[in-house]
Predict the structure.
Amino acid sequence: MDTPVADAGEFMTLAQQFRPELMAHCYRMLGSPEDAEDLVQETYLRAWRGYGGFEGRSSLRLWLYRIATNACLRALEQRGRRPLPSGLSEPMSDPDQYAPGESGVRWLEPIPDHLLSGDPAAIVDTRGGVRLALVAAMQLLPARQRAILILREVLEFPAAETAAALGTTVAAVNSGLQRARAALAAAGVGLDQIDEPPEPRRRALLDRYVAALESADFDALHAILQDDAILEMPPSAAWFAGRAQIVRFLKSLGCMPGHFRMRHASANGQAALGQYRRDADGRYHAYSLQVFGLTEAGISHIVAFFDADIFPAFGLAPMLPRS
């Protein structure tokens, strides 16, 4: 039945407070902020149409999550998962054999922090569940296991509420959660694994990285990377493991001092940088968005998204002004 106008106004007042967390939820499920936004819109449309029959039989928040989760599950029947390169193949053993090019895979995409919440403090609370490594590991799970893991472990819904949301039994939820936990453990990713250093140390690490890359100082770059660091570069399927391999690869690109400029950003609740490359016109044009995993020991993970079109979503200009 259609929702009366008065009820629709009440619904929007009550439901809008949940939009940022529903966005994060749909992103965890789908791995794409654009797809997540579409599913959040669908969730609100379905909820608005059905609000007249809601009658408060459960909390509004749980009801919205039930609609959103099932909308995501239907979408995943057609769209499939979005991995990172490290989830599909072994690292390249010879950086000199690297050939740029797109693989045709629908890769996991980064999400701007402002879509998760307008409140910086809330982003801190949310970011553990939207870290790139965690969302990438979730993408390797079957869709229903992924939903169970998110509802139970990230959102901390009781098993009975999770079962009701998915139209299944508590026993099935508990079994699915056990398998999902085992899969994450095998991938070496933990739900509470936020081991980044304090903000001053994070900023210092990034500043050293920026200085090393902009000046093409490969010794300095080698010093700031962890021994087991990883570099991934969607839309290329190639990736590199180990700082020696990463530095060797970057050297092979013929980087020279002044070739790149970097600007700070944030994505997935993590430190990020917009990388700009100097082109033939002498201007610095958008090149890649780099999202970092940082520890006290240095940089552990770099995912460089080579898609200049996403720069505006992260507050980055498509081209730097002449200096």
In short: Confidence is low (pLDDT under 50) at residues 1-6, 119-124. Residues 80 and 308 are 24 Å apart (CA to CA). Residues 60-79 form the longest helix (20 residues).
